[in-house]
TrEMBL record:
GO biological process annotation, one example: DNA integration
Region named Disordered: 410-441
A Pfam family per the record: Phage_int_SAM_3
UniProt cross-references to InterPro entries, sorted A to Z: CB, DNA_brk_join_enz, Integrase-like_cat_sf, Integrase_catalytic, Integrase_DNA-bd_sf, Integrase_DNA_bind_dom, Integrase_recombinase_N, Integrase_SAM-like_N
Protein name listed in UniProt: Integrase
CDD domains: INT_Rci_Hp1_C
Length: 441
């Protein structure tokens, strides 16, 4: 039998089914090669006439040397008459929801919890997860044993979050605070996270089944409102007034870019000059919600970027007012412009949805709009950009121009989507015959 080393583990093959390889240097220590190709470290021993196994961890997060040290400790306890497998099973049976959540977050920090597209969850996603765990899951379910949770308990948890049982004002830092609210949307998203945590528990054999399955979730109240032409105009006048009255340029530029690109708030706030390609009319986002993503820039959006202060001042397109960080006054800026313009609920999502709706008014298809907005399943990568850039840039240009005209004059898009064959032909022509991108104003 060979010695268990990093090289041996990485070269091990499943041969069509799970197989075990044992170490000749440390008897009882070995690896399990799964049919999928992944490997885990384990020990095997006999106790009270029975063969027992204890898994140490998966190769990758656990190295061969760390696994060997853990194996020596576990086998030493076996030599003293202990039964680590039984102790582990007892601990799992007694694990509380709080302990499970903590274990889940540790695994997520190591990149073992996958998010969208099979990629490890991002830091900002884990930040939100932690907030939901600390402010909703632990207060209502933290002391419960994981193995005792039932679907009825989870359904009660959903109702409690929905009616605001966990609502509170939580102090964050020296002067900050977080206002925790309930509601249907919060309940739906939090029980979704709970389902993921309990799926992790199932994969770790802590529970045999996930009690979240089958639980009824409240409607998430997805926001579908868009800006009307008169609201676009009111916002445009508010921005002009702000620029004339000394409003910080980062605030007005933020709203202009959101309105003229349809990008998410985080994509504009975190945008760096290295991701802006004005020559090819593109934003090459290195880390959007859907991963790396390419977005077309219309002429009006390019004009906003070209008018911003010199790039030598900061790596960020919208730098902070003080220091080298990105701009962080977006919340107060939205509140100020909402009050001045009278546009209720002004925010990044409303501007993004309005950009997409304007594109739909112009006759563009869902796939084209999805590519402009970076929707899941429609994200454009460098593999395809040579085939689609002119079409998408033309679409982004026409859409941004329509939004800009609405903000200047209150007029809606000049071309509305039409029904029937004539309308379909007009929409197809708009998407397949690019026109010359105009010179930015």
């Amino acid at each position: 039998m060979p010695k268990i080393t990093k090289r041996l583990v990485e070269a091990a093959e499943p041969k069509g089914r799970d197989r075990f390889i044992w170490c000749d240097e440390l008897p009882g220590f070995g690896i399990r090669v799964f049919a999928s190709g992944r490997c885990s470290y384990l020990i095997q021993y006999r106790h009270s006439g029975r063969t027992r196994r204890v898994t140490i961890g998966l190769h990758g997060p656990v190295t061969a040397e760390d696994a060997r040290k853990a194996a020596k400790g576990l086998l030493g306890r076996v030599a003293q008459g202990e039964d680590p497998a039984e102790e582990k099973a007892t601990n799992r049976a007694a694990m509380t929801v709080t302990e499970l959540c903590d274990a889940y977050l540790v695994a997520a920090d190591k990149g073992l919890i996958m998010g969208k597209g099979g990629r490890p969850k991002k830091a900002r996603t884990l930040y939100v997860d932690r907030g939901r765990i600390e402010r909703h899951i632990k207060p209502l379910l933290g002391s419960r044993r994981v193995r005792d949770l039932t679907s009825a308990d989870v359904q009660r948890f959903v109702r409690d979050v929905q009616v605001g049982k966990t609502a509170a004002v939580v102090k964050t830092g020296l002067h900050g605070k977080a206002v925790v609210r309930g509601g249907a949307g919060t309940a739906a998203r939090t029980v979704g996270l709970l389902g993921g945590i309990l799926s992790y528990a199932k994969s770790e054999t802590i529970i045999p089944a996930n009690p979240v399955f089958g639980v009824k979730k409240p409607a998430d109240n997805k926001r579908g409102r868009r800006l009307r032409p008169e609201e676009f105009h009111a916002l445009g006048k508010a921005l002009a007034t702000g620029e004339a009255s000394g409003e910080v340029w980062q605030a007005t530029a933020l709203i202009w870019l959101l309105a003229l690109t349809g990008c998410r708030l985080s994509e504009i706030l975190n945008l760096r000059w290295s991701e802006v390609d004005l020559d090819f009319c593109e934003l090459r986002l290195e880390d959007s919600k859907e991963g790396a993503s390419l977005r077309p820039l219309g002429a009006r959006a390019r004009a906003v970027l070209e008018a911003l202060p010199s790039r030598q001042a900061s790596t960020y397109v919208l730098p902070g007012i003080r220091g080298a960080r990105r701009y962080g006054g977006q919340a107060h800026a939205m509140e100020r412009f909402e009050e001045v313009s009278g546009v209720a609920g002004l925010g990044a999502h409303l501007l993004r949805h309005s950009f997409g709706s304007t594109a739909a008014d112009l006759g563009y298809s869902e796939s084209t709009i999805g590519a402009m907005l970076g929707h899941a399943g429609h994200t454009v990568t460098s593999l395809y950009i040579h085939h689609l850039d002119e079409v998408l840039i033309d679409a982004a240009d026409r859409t941004a121009e329509a939004v800009w005209q609405a903000m200047q004059t209150g007029a809606g898009p000049a071309m509305r989507r039409r029904r029937g064959a004539a309308g379909q032909q007009e929409a197809a022509t708009a998407e397949t015959v690019p026109r010359q991108v105009p010179t930015p104003p």
